[in-house]
Specification:
By secondary structure, this protein is mainly beta. 10% of the residues lie in helices and 39% in strands. A five-stranded antiparallel β-sheet has the order 1-8-7-6-5, with no helix packed on it. Strands 4-3-2-29 form a four-stranded antiparallel β-sheet, with no helix packed on it. A four-stranded antiparallel β-sheet has the order 9-10-11-12, with no helix packed on it. Its cofactor is Cu cation.
């Protein structure tokens, strides 16, 4: 499958200007969550009253498609994730610093587009969806019945990014990219419960299954054009930060630089992109910037055990500055049994299922800029977002073959499992 034409990546000078301003502004504390109407209180809801779905964030048009979580993955409804767009833009245009960052995001990581929705989770009662909105530097809760805002939390700095939800569904952790900060919020009220410091540009977040720890991966300065390995030192402080999920105090930091060097791969970046834990959380699999493959890391022994290089696409431009935000491959998930990995080969325009025991890849399934990989509700399929084709595609973990594709909105990125009321067919507005 060929990718549809993409907007030319804008000059990075604005992004660099914005980054310079961040040095001054990064310490600014965010305002508390603003309630736009009474937030839905968490209530005990029977599982029979809820329906499992997949949420697909359409980054460039500011919508989220809600689709079936398995089977034919048919679309159920579409949600407007920026009902307050006019108000937010008015605030930005009146503030020169906010405007500089807003334009920097558009012309840098946004590839000429505004980033209106990144990550999403539903509340435990299934009544609301909570989303990070990078260009608006915030997190919002949207009522699924009305489409109206419940609350809004502006993050520190000028860009929000990836999130994670706690195992009990009551807290979310969101990365504030320009402020080296992760906020932890009450998912129902938007009130900040705590925060912690990270490396440069915090990215992925993970709660451990027992809810005791949060892992954050900082990726450094992906918006610069200094992508040649000789300039790797300019990319900033990139490491894993592990904190206590209740006190938000640091427990451990892990810089993969020394681990990669010990494994004989000093050529690889230490900027960790998407990752996946084994079911027992003893092993971490992760992608890094500029690499077509992934790395296996044993947590107890603190060492890299295997490195898998996946096929490159001969048609991929070798100029690393053309790779989206330093990502060659961006998207990694594991089936519930822990026997298969699914890899989104972003710049190589394919996805593939890899046997975990042998690290042998299966068929290379053509995909247009696949940018995320998750697992279907029934655990049978890997679901990837194809940002270049405006669709999501399911790949059977057992066979490695394509099972279904469903059209969604403009530039899908994050795909997350969630729950909505069983009879829900979309917001009223």
């Amino acid at each position: 499958m060929t990718s549809r034409p993409r907007a030319r990546r804008g000059p990075r000078s604005l992004a660099l200007l914005a980054a310079a301003v961040a040095v001054v502004a990064a310490t600014a504390a965010p305002a508390g969550a603003t309630a736009h109407r009474p937030a839905n209180a968490a209530t005990a809801v029977s599982a029979t009253d809820l329906r499992e779905v997949l949420l697909v964030g359409n980054n460039w048009d500011g919508t989220a498609d809600v689709i079936k979580s398995s089977g034919d993955f048919a679309r159920i409804a579409r949600i407007n994730m920026i009902p307050d767009k006019a108000q937010r833009l008015a605030e930005i245009y009146l503030d020169p610093v906010k405007l500089a960052f807003f334009l920097g995001i558009r012309n840098g990581v946004g590839e000429g587009h505004d980033q209106f929705v990144d990550d999403m989770y539903t509340t435990p009662d299934g009544k609301s969806v909570v989303a990070s909105r990078p260009s608006f530097a915030d997190v919002v809760s949207i009522d699924l019945a009305t489409g109206h805002l419940n609350w809004r939390f502006p993050v520190a700095g000028y860009r929000s990014d990836h999130m994670a939800v706690s195992p009990d569904g009551t807290r979310i952790a969101v990365s504030a990219s320009t402020a080296r900060t992760v906020h932890v919020l009450d998912i129902n009220t938007g009130q900040q419960l705590g925060s912690f410091g990270t490396g440069d540009e915090p990215h992925e977040n993970y709660f451990t299954k027992d809810g005791r720890y949060i892992w954050d991966m900082s990726i450094g300065n992906v918006e610069t054009a200094l992508d040649d390995p000789i300039w790797d030192w300019t990319k900033g402080d990139r490491h894993i930060t592990i904190v206590d999920a209740h006190t938000y105090q640091p427990v451990r930091t892990i810089d993969m630089r020394s681990r990669l060097d010990a494994a004989g791969r000093s050529d690889l970046s230490n900027a960790i992109r998407p990752a996946a834990f084994s079911p027992d959380e003893s092993t971490l699999y992760f992608q890094v910037s500029f690499f077509n493959g992934f790395i296996e890391y044993d947590i107890a022994s603190d060492r890299i055990t295997r490195i898998k290089t996946l096929p490159g696409n001969p048609a991929t431009n070798p100029d690393r500055t053309t790779w989206i935000n330093d990502s060659r491959h961006h998207g990694l998930s594991m089936n519930p049994a822990g026997t298969k990995l699914c890899v989104a080969g972003t710049m190589d325009n394919y996805a593939t299922v890899v046997d975990r025991a042998t690290l042998q890849e299966g068929p290379l399934i053509p995909a247009a800029t696949p940018y995320w990989a998750t697992v279907s509700g029934d655990g049978k399929d890997c679901v990837i977002s194809e940002a270049g084709a405006d669709q999501v595609t399911a790949i059977d973990f057992a066979t490695g073959q394509k099972a279904a594709s469903v059209a969604v909105g403009d530039h899908p990125q994050r795909v997350r499992l969630g729950h909505v009321p069983a009879d829900w067919t979309g917001p009223a507005s």
